[in-house]
Amino acid sequence: MGLCFRTHLNTQRKGLSVGCTSPWELVWASPWAIKKKNKKNLPQSPPSLPIIGHLHLLLSVLPQKAFQKISSRYGPLLHLRIFKVPFVLASSASVAYDLFRTHDVNVSSRGFRTLENSLLFGHETFTGADFGDYYKFMKKVLVMNLLGTQALERSRGIRAEEIERFYARLMDKARKKESVEIGKEAMVLTNNIMSKLLIGRSCSEENGEAEKVRESVTKTMGLIKKVFFSNMLGKPLKKLGISLFEKEIRGVSGGFDELLERLLREHEEKHQDTDMMDVLLSAYKYENADYKITRNHIKLLIVELFLAGTDSAARLIQWAMAEIISKPNILERLRQEMDSVAGKTRLIQETDLPRLPYLQAVVKETQRFHPAVPLTLRMSEEDCNVGGFHIPEKTTLVVNVYAVMRDPNVWQNPDEFKPERFIASSSSEQEEEREKILKFLPFGSGRRGCPEENLGYIFVETGVGMMVQCFDWRINGDKIVNMEETLAGLSSNRV
Ligand code: HEM
């Protein structure tokens, strides 16, 4: 993207193991089994091919789009199989409601398969942990020290400082008439903020540390996509599954491990209590803690938070800007709103956000249209009934968030980018509607939903807000913004 100053601004401103007794296997085994199926009322299964099952339906387009196409033809709750491994695909708002409200506890584990002795995808991750003591302990630590309202207020200064540095970097490029890769710059912003919150300093640009970390984040997000699908491929491809990527995983994992070990030693030497790593070290050393965490837990959580906080928000900033730049009427309305709230002499601040409903609506519509995490993975602990169908225990559940947020039964003109839909009704009406159906799920939902919705919104709204407020944008070369989607990690990407 090319950019220049806005002339009127005067600021410097895992897997599923299926035993022979699984009802799913019975379904495929014999006509006798089909009777069993009907008795149990399992979700419908589209026609499949011998051996590979439904794999062929997934190969041509992005998985979320392929799944959406299958669901719109066969129904919102389907059982599919890839080779011998079954999973249930949920694709409508009402089914999402059933899963995340009625059966929230039952589906609050993910069932990831793990890789031993690896930092990434190891058995001690927070994101993959069962909903047990370790998970609950860490979540409490997170809310109190990083993600809760008070913790967010304490760290506001860090984010404001980083928005100013972001502004200064763009201003420098504008002065030199250089073009800007929005995704890359957004990643620097989110990466710096997460580094400061987690380890008390941003990674150094001088010695290449920051670039190395950003590269590792991008590589890991790519690996998450591969491991997500290898989790679904399960047993038959076990050897080809996670082990196929083992070398790659161990490489990235080793790099993170080395960095984290160095950071832990730095923190132990300075004995302070200012960032998330300090908090976790105190918990590690505290004899009477409710749960005895290990040094490995600390490293893992830091890496997971780093990944979760950096990548999704940066991609959303990139998507939001792509939509805004290609739609001048949205850009103009945003600017008017921003100028009336922040004026022309200072940068937009976090505290301005509640008074910027249109900016909030643009960010929400970006989340609906281009969800950073289009598919989420859960596992049913016990048998349950969803949308009138029987779901056996230990079934992998894939929720197609992308399809839910384009479900034509609950969204008007779902394939149109229309921020106004988020300001048309009052917040009490929206709340009432949300209670009845779960149709807006960019952060997932229920116990295993994203614990950091607030921080996610702050990142994206302030980042986008500043870019719109302070700069005019022009597309390099092409007259239109390329909105083609690719899959990088589990995230939609813009190329
Ligand atoms: C706009 C940015 C973000 C988006 C779109 C996003 C989205 C998501 C989604 C969809 C999930 C899975 C939810 C589910 O399975 O129901 C998730 C989980 C998670 N997110 Fe976020 N997230 C964002 C920002 C963040 C930030 C800033 C942090 C932390 C600093 C964070 C930490 C986490 C963690 C720890 C989990 C795992 C929760 C669990 O397993 O219980 N996320 N996020």
Automatic annotation (TrEMBL):
* UniProt xrefs under Pfam families: p450 (PF00067)
Grouped into one coarse class, the protein's main location is: membrane
Known cofactor(s): heme
Entry-linked SUPFAM superfamilies: Cytochrome P450
Q: Which InterPro entries match?
A: Cyt_P450 (IPR001128), Cyt_P450_E_grp-I (IPR002401), Cyt_P450_sf (IPR036396), Plant_metabolite_P450s (IPR051103)
Q: Could you tell me which species this protein originates from?
A: Brassica cretica
| Protein family membership | Belongs to the cytochrome P450 family.
Name of the protein in question: Uncharacterized protein
**Membrane topology per the record?**
Single-pass membrane protein
Cell compartment(s), UniProt: Membrane
Q: Which CDD domains match?
A: CYP93 (cd20655)
Highest classification ranks of the organism = Eukaryota, Viridiplantae, Streptophyta, Embryophyta, Tracheophyta
Q: What domain of life is recorded for the organism?
A: Eukaryota
Keyword terms of this UniProt record = Heme, Iron, Membrane, Metal-binding, Monooxygenase, Oxidoreductase, Transmembrane, Transmembrane helix
